[in-house]
Amino acid sequence: MRGSDELKEILSGIFDSQIPNHGDYNLVFASAVPEPGTAGNPGPCYVLGYRWRPHELVIAPVDPAGPAAAGTPVAIDMTNLSHAVQLAGRHAAEPDPGTIEYEVGNSTGRIFRFEVAGEGVLPGSGSIEQVQDAEDFHQFMASLISMA
Questions:
Q1: What's the predicted TM-score (pTM) here?
Q2: How far apart are CA 49 and CA 97, in angstroms?
Q3: Nearest-angstrom CA–CA distance, 77 and 57
């Protein structure tokens, strides 16, 4: 298992290699949340890049097995945001109070469901300590949701 700092470095490298102006974004790790009524593997994890001015969220899929990039990142801003909501609750038996689930969609129909926790778990690789980053991200999402 890798340590938190090593995983942060790897995930930052994945994001940086795909986003030209990567230095403009704060980064946080997110786990995919399965659609209601489905079971099994929820899918990829994400590196979320976000910035306050202008409000923008970049969702970069990550294959946790590598970890490695798992697809093309999607940028969501005020010109293509269809919706952003905080979901009702966690699917885990004992939720972490710092974990919040979200759903974000864009005008082309792409919908992402994910959760951000103070300690993100990258299956098979380890965990990422991101309490302060998660708190800042939750504030960002509250702002994005209010503007959606």
A1: 0.90
A2: 22
A3: 6
- 60 in Cβ contact with 69 (< 8 Å): yes
Residue the block writes with tokens 């995919």: 32
**Rounded Cα gap, residues 64 and 121, in angstroms:** 10
Domain boundaries, given as residue ranges, for the chain = 4-147
- Topology adopted by domain 4-147: PH-domain like (2.30.29)
**Residue type present at position 11:** L
Question: What is the chain's pLDDT, residue by residue, as a tens digit (148 residues)?
Answer: 889 999 999 999 999 999 998 999 999 999 998 766 666 565 679 999 999 999 999 999 999 888 999 999 999 999 999 999 999 865 544 456 679 999 999 999 999 999 999 999 988 889 999 999 999 999 999 999 999 8
Q: Transcribe 15-35 into DSSP letters.
A: HHHH-TTGGG-EEEEEEE-PP
Cis peptide before 61 (omega within 30 of 0): no
The rounded Cα 35 to chain-centroid distance in angstroms is: 16
Tokens of 81: 């945001």
